[in-house]
Amino acid sequence: MNRPNLFFYSVILCATLFTSSCKKEDKQNKEREELEQLYNQIKDIAESSTCGQNQELKHIAVGAKACGGPTSYLVYSTSINVTEFETLVLQYNEKQKNYNNKWGAISDCTIVGPPKSIVCENGKPKINN
């Protein structure tokens, strides 16, 4: 193969590799953005819950670390549609687990434990430290 043809094929190969790398990064960014949007929706629902005398205070594990376990816990009360909320959290957890596996995500492996107690403060569920 002469040098001009070798150069031409090298340029084509590099351009192809660069383009496919960009497409992969675009897909990963899109999936990460979708996860963030779903998390924000979940967080907004949890934060919209109110508490008083008739609502039960609860917590739920949210997210999936690459090495296992949740990334955090959210507190909420039964003033919201609990079934719908818990279903969204389960969907989010599964999507994050799939994202981690698909893209080879890494995370710290610290164990995030559930809150020891939850209190009602100014009409909102709060973690009691």
Notable characteristics:
single chain, 129 residues, two-stranded antiparallel ribbon, 2 helices, Lipoprotein
Structural class from helices and strands? alpha+beta
Strand segment count: 4
Task: Please give the radius of gyration in angstroms.
Answer: 22 Å
Quote the beta fraction: 15-25%
Distance between the termini: 72 Å
Q: Helix-strand pattern, N to C?
A: HEEHEE
- Give the number of helices: 2
Low-confidence stretches: none
**Residue-averaged pLDDT, rounded?**
89
The shape is: elongated
Sequence of strands across the biggest β-sheet: 1-2
Q: Provide the helix percentage.
A: 40-55%
Task: Characterize the biggest β-sheet.
Answer: 2 strands, antiparallel
Number of domains: 1
Can you tell me about this structure?
This protein has 129 residues and is an alpha+beta fold. It has one domain (3-127). It is 53% helix and 16% strand. It has 2 helices and 4 strands; from the N terminus they run αββαββ. The chain has helices at 3-48, 82-103, and strands at 57-62, 72-77, 118-121, 124-127. The strands form 2 sheets. A two-stranded antiparallel sheet has the order 1-2. A two-stranded antiparallel ribbon has the order 3-4. The longest helix has 46 residues, at 3-48. It is elongated, with a radius of gyration of 22 Å. The chain starts with a helix and ends with a strand. The mean pLDDT is 89.
